[in-house]
Design brief:
By secondary structure, the protein is an alpha/beta fold. It has two domains: about 60 residues, no CATH class; about 325 residues, Alpha-Beta Barrel (TIM Barrel), CATH 3.20.20. The chain contains 15 helices and ten strands. The chain has a four-stranded parallel β-sheet. A three-stranded parallel β-sheet has the order 9-1-10, covered by helices on one side. It has a three-stranded parallel β-sheet with strand order 2-3-4, covered by helices on one side. Helix 4 packs across helix 12. The protein binds ligand V47.
């Protein structure tokens, strides 16, 4: 990181011209694609306001003054997992205190809790359970589609899909087709962490490789489903490894166009085996939003996940390149078991207030970013 620059009583134009980011500003204004070196320079810079202004410029060119949100609910059918990632506070071993596995009926009951016609999406992720059969996952999708035919099912990360194919004893493509037929509508972006092997060995030793995550995402897209992409930052990774991660996503997006949004996720250390690490800072959280907006020129949307950033910083992120706050969420486990202090739910009115106060226009969306007309204002 370079030291912060002192204000020298100069004009704003001179200030930007003197910024170490001036050459990158020129490139972005000329519509040129940024390189690996540019990405590292953006992360190294402390000129957060130039970085934010540039990212906001790109965001407004792509999405105007809009900020999206969705009325959704997260569902975690099980937290039993055999993968044993160092980064995780959510997972439990079979028989361990704090573990749960819902029956299909309990999944449906959870989905029904507080359900209104406004709910557009169930976001469903869980651990890699050693004993649940493949049929459980098929039945889960079928039951949710039967009871909630209008709700989009965004389910099973690339890590889970890789495992489900093994459980099913079929190819990945066949497995995705079976899940699609049962009601799978799209795939969430979790499990990507940082693609570099060095980092995975330290934070999620036994999880699938970065290369495999990308291969699964490619197959998801080839099967006609959209997905999101994430990056877990703020642990042991270097700026170079972050940029490598972003550029690998950009390369796949060039090929498939299948990613709808990118979501940077700040590492929460509490109750994990990496609890000695410090929490991320506001500076780094905003940098990750802005750098992602600038490097991922082929992604339409950058999400400031308010559960992870906190509602106030997520709101500020709407002026640093983000155009989406995610949704109402309702019950969140992964971050709250890792020490997250944010609320677990925001109402539509609260989300719209945050967006309006950032000077943006709130637009309720579906999972694929189509604007939707609110079913009944204030009902969620
Ligand atoms: O895959 C796990 C991360 C992810 C911790 O697709 C942790 O729209 C921080 O993927 N500290 C799950 N992060 C969340 C996720 C997500 C969230 C919102 C929207 C979308 C989307 C996806 O959370 C995991 C992992 O990368 N995670 N443990 C932790 N201690």
């Amino acid at each position: 990181m370079t030291p912060a620059r002192a204000w020298k009583g100069e004009s704003m134009k001179m200030y930007i011209a003197r910024s170490e980011l001036a050459p990158i500003v020129e490139k972005v204004l000329a519509g040129e694609r940024l390189t690996f070196e540019d990405g590292v320079a953006l992360y190294r810079s402390n000129d957060l306001l130039t970085l934010g202004a540039l990212a906001n410029y790109v965001k407004e060119k792509k999405n105007g003054n809009v900020a999206y949100y969705i009325i959704n609910r997260h569902i975690n059918p099980t937290n039993i997992c055999f993968v044993d990632c160092q980064l995780c506070a959510f997972a439990r071993k079979v028989g361990e205190e704090g573990g749960w596995t819902m029956s299909i009926e309990e999944v449906v009951q959870t989905a029904a809790r507080g359900y209104t016609d406004s709910v557009r999406e169930f976001h469903i992720v869980g651990g890699l359970h050693p004993y649940l059969p493949f049929q459980y996952y098929v039945d889960l999708l079928r039951a949710l589609k039967y009871h909630f035919p209008n709700v989009h099912l965004k389910a099973f990360t690339c890590v889970e899909l890789d495992y489900l194919a093994k459980l099913a004893g079929r190819s990945l493509r066949e497995t995705i087709e079976i899940l699609k037929e049962a009601g799978l509508d799209s795939v969430p972006g979790g499990g990507a962490e940082i693609f570099a092997r060095r980092v995975r060995d330290l934070i999620c030793t036994h999880k699938i490789s970065g290369e495999r995550w990308l291969e699964v995402a490619r197959t998801v897209h080839e099967c006609g489903l959209k997905s999101t992409a994430t990056m877990l930052y703020g642990h042991v990774e270097t700026y170079e490894e972050r940029v490598d991660h972003l550029l690998r996503l950009r390369a796949l997006q060039d090929e498939t166009g299948g990613f709808t949004a990118f979501i940077p996720l700040a590492f929460h250390p509490e109750n994990t085996r990496l609890s000695h690490l410090p929490w991320t800072t506001g500076m780094d959280d905003l940098k990750n939003i802005a750098v992602a907006r600038l490097l991922l020129d082929n992604f339409d949307h950058i999400k400031a996940y308010w559960i992870m950033m906190g509602p106030k910083l997520a709101q500020v992120a709407l002026r640093f390149g983000a155009d989406d706050l995610d949704g109402t969420v309702v019950e969140e486990k992964i971050y709250h078991m890792a020490g997250g202090q944010t609320p677990q739910s925001l109402t539509r009115a609260e989300i719209e207030h945050l967006i309006r106060q950032a000077g943006c226009l709130p637009v309720e969306r579906d999972s694929l970013y189509n604007p939707v007309t609110p079913a009944a204002v204030g009902s969620a």
